[in-house]
Amino acid sequence: MTTTISKIRQLFLQAKPTYLIPVAATLLGMDERELRRWMESGELEGAETDEGLVLPWPELVSFAMEFWSQEAVEQALGADGAAALPELLRLTDLEVRIPRIEVVALERLAARDEESVSAVLARELRDLVSVHSQWLSQEVPGFARALAWPE
Predict the structure, then answer these.
(1) DSSP E strands: which ranges in 59-148?
(2) Quick one: pLDDT at residue 1?
(3) Residue 104 burial (C-beta neighbours within 10 Å; 0-12, 13-18, 19+)
(4) How many Å apart are CA 8 and CA 81, to the nearest integer?
(5) Are residues 76 and 144 in the same domain?
(6) pLDDT tens, residue by residue, 79-137
(7) How many domains does the chain have?
(8) In terms of CB atoms within 10 Å, which end of the chain has fewer, N or C?
(9) Does residue 135 share a domain with residue 105?
């Protein structure tokens, strides 16, 4: 099992309420200084405890999902992913017919950002979901829970 896969599995399947900064850095595959820089920039919010500065699990997972693609996370979790991720957050296939200009735009944005077309489209669709979240929460069972995950 590769190191990244084992780190993903540890974070998602052996979750702890909080993580000391050195442990969190190791799980993310970065050094402690780099993690502290992310905290100083406001990308991560730690909490002071009797043990020292810690990162709550939801904060750490949200941050990790910016570095690990969802495809990588789901592949690492395998069948265990069903227990770790809400159903509405798990990946699914979608076939659509859209104008070629939109396909070209997605492809170029993906190339520029060194991401997949799926990642670019998912990022853009998150805005759509956010705009309609109140209505969707009333219409779709489990929607509000999935939207609030990992809190």
Answers:
(1) none
(2) 61
(3) exposed
(4) 11
(5) no
(6) 999 999 999 999 999 999 999 999 999 999 999 999 999 989 998 999 999 999 999 99
(7) 2
(8) N
(9) yes
Q: Are 87 and 38 in contact (CB under 8 A)?
A: no
Q: What percent of the chain has pLDDT over 70?
A: 99
CA distances from 61 to 73, 84, 96 (A): 11, 11, 30
For residue 64, the domain's CATH number is: 1.10.1660
Provide the angle, in degrees to the nearest 10, between the axes of the packed helices 57-67 and 3-13.
150
Query: Beta strands 47-49 and 52-56: pairing type?
Result: antiparallel
Give how far the C-alpha of residue 87 lies from the chain's centroid of Cα atoms, to the nearest Å: 14
Burial class (CB in 10 A: 0-12, 13-18, 19+), 112: exposed
Percent of the chain with pLDDT over 90: 89
What's the whole-number average pLDDT of the chain?
93
Distance CA 27, CA 19 (A): 10
- 28 with 61, same domain: the answer is yes
